[in-house]
Amino acid sequence: MPSSHPLADTTRAKARQIRRHAIDMVYRAKQGHPGGDMSVTDILSVLYFGVLRLDPANPNDPRRDRFVLSKGHCTGALYATLAEKGFFPVEQLQTYMQPLSRLNGHPNRNYTPGVETNTGPLGHGMPVAVGIAIAGQIDKADFRTFVVVGDGELQEGSNWEAAMTAGHRKLANLTLIIDRNGLQQGARTEDTAALDPLADKWRAFGWEVVEIDGHDHDALLTVLAAPIAGRTRPLCVIARTHKGQGVSYMRDQVSWHHGVPNQAQYELALQEIG
Predict the structure, then answer these.
(1) Which listed site, 37, 137, 226, 249, has its alpha carbon 20 to 30 Å from 172?
(2) How many domains does the chain fold into?
(3) How far apart are CA 15 and CA 30, in angstroms?
(4) What's the sign of the alpha-carbon dihedral 229, 215, 95, 70?
(5) CA 75 to CA 82: how far, in whole Å?
(6) Cα–Cα distance between 68 and 174 in angstroms, integer?
(7) What's the number of CA atoms in the CB half-sphere (13 Å) around residue 218?
(8) What local confidence, expressed as pLDDT, does residue 3 receive?
């Protein structure tokens, strides 16, 4: 089916490369979160190669759009995206989680160019993103703030305090993307602490809500790249995804929240990703 968005072919090709890097990084490091890396890759590819206004040569440009990966354990996908964007050499991905590497298991802005804020403890990124958006609103700045959270992460109460604040302040410059793969560490989200009806919850907090296929690049680009002129509320994008997307034996398998592929699985993953 032909792409309807002019950047979709580019972002899909980048997503394929990001997935290959992320699998290789986890395989080399013998640790990581490959299932979540695979589910969030298409979202990251669309943001960095089709939406965000930023300059790798000037990562602290005050005019830049801000991006926060609240599900900070998925650094395989994040670092691969930053490297492909040019924030640091792709070759440095081979140092992932090695001693003295700046590519830690959780992102740290003090070490890694392109990382907006330190994340990892779940429930922290969303409040930080709301604070950034409030600062932009006060300054009447034209940068946008984007934050990606995992669906299991929404069981942390700090997210809902932030959601209430964002809705109250009508932060039209804020976009939240929920990586809704339905799985968290050890179980399905709905078996742990049910989130549905998720869209209704966000609307009740004063947010505009859109639900899309989180692996459909045309849909992601259409929603995330849309201008915010005329918007009066923060936007929540519920992106329906699959844990382990792109790798058959990982797809929708909770065991791959953590997990390291053996050599045969590693080779199969690269073959399937293409």
Answers:
(1) 37
(2) 1
(3) 22
(4) positive
(5) 10
(6) 11
(7) 6
(8) 67
With contact defined as beta carbons under 8 Å apart, do 236 and 176 qualify?
A: yes
Reduce the secondary structure of 79-122 to three states and give it as a string: HHHHHHHCCCCHHHHHHCCCCCCCCCCCCCCCCCCCCCCCCCCC
Is residue 203 in a domain?
yes
DSSP state of 13: H
**Domain presence at residue 3:** no
Letter string b/e over residues 23-51, b meaning 16 or more CB atoms within 10 A of that residue's CB:
bbbbbbbeebbbbbbbbbbbbbbbbbbbb
Q: Distance between terminal CA atoms of the chain?
A: 19
Residue found under tokens 């309807």: 4
Q: What's the pTM value of the predicted model, to 2 decimals?
A: 0.97
The per-residue pLDDT string of the chain (274 residues; one tens digit each, 9 = 90 and over) reads 456 899 999 999 999 999 999 999 999 999 999 999 999 999 999 999 999 999 999 999 999 999 999 999 999 999 999 999 999 999 999 999 999 999 999 999 999 999 999 998 899 999 999 999 999 999 999 999 999 999 999 999 999 999 999 999 999 999 999 999 998 988 898 988 999 999 999 999 999 999 999 999 999 999 999 999 999 999 999 999 999 999 999 999 999 998 999 999 999 999 999 9
Q: Is 130 helix (H, G, I), strand (E, B) or coil?
A: helix
1 within some domain? no
Single-letter amino acid code for the residue at 71: K
* φ/ψ (deg, to 5) at 66: -105, 135
CATH assignment of the domain containing 174:
3.40.50.970
For residue 123, being part of any structural domain is answered with yes
Answer positive or negative: Cα dihedral of 125, 140, 87, 109: negative
